[in-house]
Design brief:
This protein has a ten-stranded antiparallel sheet with strand order 1-2-3-4-7-8-9-12-11-10, with helices on one face. It has a two-stranded antiparallel sheet with strand order 5-6. It has one domain (24-220). The chain is globular, with a radius of gyration of 21 Å. It has helices spanning 5-21, 42-45, 155-166, and strands at residues 28-32, 52-56, 62-68, 93-99, 103-104, 110-111, 114-122, 137-143, 172-177, 187-190, 197-203, 213-220. It has 225 residues and is α+β, with helices and mostly antiparallel strands.
């Protein structure tokens, strides 16, 4: 039996409301079979996984691609308040990342689309950084042409490399957090409180018998003003 014109009109009136009630698409991850770009130095490339992780934006388009180290070197933890990853030496290469569109770091500074190295960095204890974040752990991005060696670099050199990304005096930084949730990495999720988009990854320890290191890299989001 055909629906009456009244029923059709009522259903049509409900459609926009039903569509509006649909939850927005979430960020997602997928395996990227491509190896790291050829522009990455051989020293760093040889330490990376052959496959990457692709983060898809809420629009379903590629947002960030990351190639992580096969394993991370660790050290005996040093007591240092405000650091969540004391087993990592500052300046250690974590991997390589490609921003497929123009990005913005945790300080709100914009940088161009492109491929960058990711090194672990520690925020200095000085008046310029008070209250910026709860902890002092960050990922610093550096340009491939300038950053070619696998070995850790000291803080001053790390900053000098990273300032070349945005062209300003401040390094280009992504906040690093302890990833939350029982779901196994790699995955991406959005923090309900801050709305930061976090890439949750786990890297094996380079040392035999060492514990894997789980990192939460904030690939989208910035510090509260």
């Amino acid at each position: 039996m055909n629906a009456s014109p009244l029923c059709v009109a009522l259903l049509a009136g409900l459609l926009p409301e039903a569509a509006a009630a649909q939850p927005p698409k979430a960020y997602a991850t997928e395996v990227l079979s491509d190896p790291a770009p050829k522009e990455v130095s051989e020293a760093i490339r040889s330490a990376l996984e052959p496959k990457g992780i692709r983060v898809l934006g809420a629009d379903g388009k590629p947002y960030v691609d990351a190639w992580l180290r096969k394993s991370l070197p660790s050290r005996k933890p040093k007591e240092d308040l405000g650091i969540k990853f004391p087993v990592l030496e500052e300046g250690t290469v974590v991997g390589v990342v490609r921003f497929n569109t123009k990005g913005s770091d945790f300080k709100g500074n914009e940088f161009p689309a492109g491929v960058y190295t990711m090194r672990y960095g520690v925020q200095p204890r000085d008046g310029d950084h008070l209250g910026v974040s709860e902890t002092r752990d960050f990922i610093l991005l550096s340009p491939l042409k300038a950053d070619t060696k696998l070995e850790p670099v000291p803080h001053k050199e790390l900053v000098n490399l990273s300032v070349q990304v945005s062209g300003i005096k401040h390094p280009t930084v992504l906040y690093l957090v302890k990833a939350e949730g029982k779901e196994k990495p790699p995955r991406v999720y959005q923090d309900e409180n801050t709305e930061n988009v976090i890439l949750d990854v786990e890297l094996p320890a380079e040392e035999k018998g060492g514990a894997a290191i789980r990192l939460g890299i904030v690939v989208r989001g910035q510090a509260a003003e």
